[in-house]
Amino acid sequence: MTSAHAFDWPFEVRPLTANLGAEIIGVNLADDIGDELFRAIYEAFLRYQVLLFGPHDLPSGRQVLFARRFGDVQIHVMSQYHADGFPELYRLSNLDEDGKPNGRHPDRGTLHWHTDGSWQRVTGQATIIYGEMVPAQGGETHFCDMYGAYERLDAGWKARIDDLRAVHNLDFSRSRRHGEDPLSDAQRAEIPPVDHPVVRTHPETGRDCLYLGDHAEYIVGMPYAEGRALIEQLNALAIHPDLTYEHRWKPGELIVWDNRCVLHRATPYDPFTERRVVRRCTVLGEVPARTRAA
């Protein structure tokens, strides 16, 4: 275990892997989070990209308050997922009105590597998920470092993609992954496709990273099929086992991660026999940009 004193933080830190993620020990997010404590949490967030907080009872309102410390919280266009009277909360559940598994996965798009909110002009900064009920088997969440994904591309790949822009489109990803419950016409009109750089510069760390995932549909200025093939190839190249953290949930755990430099996905579970209920907040960040040193 790494001592908090090594970083002058008021909690202990246990790295989750050699390259990605850390558990924060000694913080209860149901308590008031003062400015000094939040500054330390945010420093750890930038350093480790994925932070785990151990099991504790966290009311919905407290989760929203914690999310607001990071910035403006997204009100998701798919309002059918809003939860507990907080439009900032997005609940994924496979339970029926009697609390029994209903056999339906609430969003199969989550089973593919993606970054939250890339389908908006102002994209996701942080995502905060709290596990209310978790399966005995499956239903994990995996994370992968996109700084490392970009750094491991060879010079030829970097030269090929450094100036490319990809169009991200929730209607595209939702339709192909969860087509039986598509966006409504009103939802589709509210979130037209947007383009972002394939390589973005993190606005706070200054590091470059790949920025694609499952919402990326095609490449600006490239024939559609060619762009699709390029995106699929890069999405596959981005995932490295030693840059990945695979989390098996315990009830009451909370994870927050940096959408600007991390891809994530859920793993399958049996929705007929297992219960999985998680609630999510996504904090809005900024318009992705690529900057280069002068």
Secondary structure topology:
Layout: E1 12-15, E2 22-25, H1 35-48, E3 50-53, H2 60-70, E4 82-83, E5 86-93, E6 124-133, E7 141-145, H3 146-151, H4 155-161, E8 165-168, H5 170-177, H6 185-190, E9 194-197, E10 199-201, E11 208-210, E12 216-219, H7 224-237, E13 244-247, E14 254-258, E15 262-266, E16 277-284
Parallel strand pairs: 2-3
Antiparallel strand pairs: 1-2, 3-14, 4-5, 5-16, 6-14, 6-16, 7-13, 7-15, 8-9, 8-12, 10-11
**CATH class category name:** Alpha Beta
Rg over alpha carbons? 19 Å
What characterizes the major β-sheet?
Answer: 8 strands, mixed
And the CATH topology?
Answer: Double-stranded beta-helix
Strands across the major sheet, in which order? Answer: 1-2-3-14-6-16-5-4
Question: Can you give a write-up of this model?
Answer:
Helix content is 22%, strand content 26%. It is α+β, with helices and mostly antiparallel strands and 294 residues long. The protein has a single domain (4-134, 147-284), classed as 4-Layer Sandwich (Double-stranded beta-helix). The protein has an eight-stranded mixed β-sheet with strand order 1-2-3-14-6-16-5-4, covered by helices on one side. The chain has a three-stranded antiparallel β-sheet with strand order 13-7-15. A three-stranded antiparallel β-sheet has the order 9-8-12. Strand 1 and strand 2 form a beta hairpin. The model is unreliable at 1-5 (pLDDT under 50).
